[in-house]
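Appendix B, example 12.
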Amino acid sequence: MKQILSIYINKPVYWGFTALISLFCLAFVLPWLFNISVLLSLAFGGMLLVDLAMLLGSQKTFIAKRFIPERLSNGDQNTIEIALENRYGFEVKISLVDEIPFQFQKRDFQIDTQLASNTTQNLQYTLRPTQRGEYLFGALNVFVSSPLGLLQRRFQFEKDKTVAVYPSFLQMREYELMAISNRLTDVGIKKIRRIGHTQEFEQIRSYVQGDDIRTINWQATARRNELMVNSYQDERAQSIYCLIDKGRIMQSPFDGLTLLDYAINSSLVLSNIALHKHDKAGVITFSNKINQTLLADRKSGQLHRILDMLYHQQTLFQESDYEALYIHVKKQIKQRSLLIIYTNFETVNSMRRQLPHFRKLAKEHLVLVVFFENTGLQNILEQPASTTAEIYQKTIAEKFYYEKKLIVKELEQYGIQALLTSPQQLSINTINKYLMLKAKGAI
């Protein structure tokens, strides 16, 4: 009975029944059509029985398996793989319907393919989550049709699997590989010119793409008959803190992600780079109160602790309390550190309300305030204005655009580092700023 309930009717069956009913109706007018209609009905019924017998084989006539990573990366394209195996003795047509988590809002997901007898096939598709949390995958439905194509049998596999979506660890790994191979310039990280060689000499090694040609050791190059460079060791064990504002100003959306999620992804990437530079990495999250604190460290497992901490961050849609942040930093962070504050300001006045707290922090630490460009305003500024309404909109957009520039200038007047960046360039620009401050010995 269970097998019978898994059988579904394809469109050709409805077309066949429609044609037979039409013939029987015509037989009232043309009696000679009656016998032909009966014969066609018997033939059509026989084909249905044959198709049913072909599909209702043994239990293991078709196998499918879905391979999902243990966790998905937020804001990135994640690959889902499906393995199909046809154990029927004939070629089958397949319609694959995967029950994707509701967060993706994909109601028309379907993959059609064909698979020869006793063969396997791997299919892939990608998903881009835009929220952290748990995602529930439903059943993997595979509808199989025989060469006759009248009926189809449904197979269900991999029911109800929950997968967690973490901050962008794929982006983190990409930058990690670039850092290890000295190829960060390939993704937009600038080469930072150091003021002299205050760093300690570490070793002589082979030249790789991205190395400064001024560090070539010509004597070693002549001996080895290949380019060799002097490698210098930066000052280590400096404390880097990512301070993430979770207030309502960080809930503005951009390309499916909120500014908070961009800040979380960037914090993970920067912490990983800092740990590879042998610095200490830590994270503090806050809104109307201090939420969580992970003190800077570079011990084994620190990156996993940062990842788990960032995974659980959610906004309370409250006004952020920078005075509470200053008091907390004063109590918890005793060593001079680089404090990277991820926040957002739309006007100079909104920044000035927090400026006294930034100045207090800057007396004891190196403070870098990171905030976001309004890319919607940028699009308005690039469009020509022809009507009065468009001129008005462009004028207002220019006002807000220059307000952002004024915020940078005013922060720098008080010795506070500032970074104005678009969300998609956040990680690259923040890493550039960190490497520049490190090269200057500002930390």
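The CA atoms of residues 123 and 315 lie 37 Å apart. The chain has four domains: 2-55, 62-166, 169-177+184-193+234-440, 207-232.
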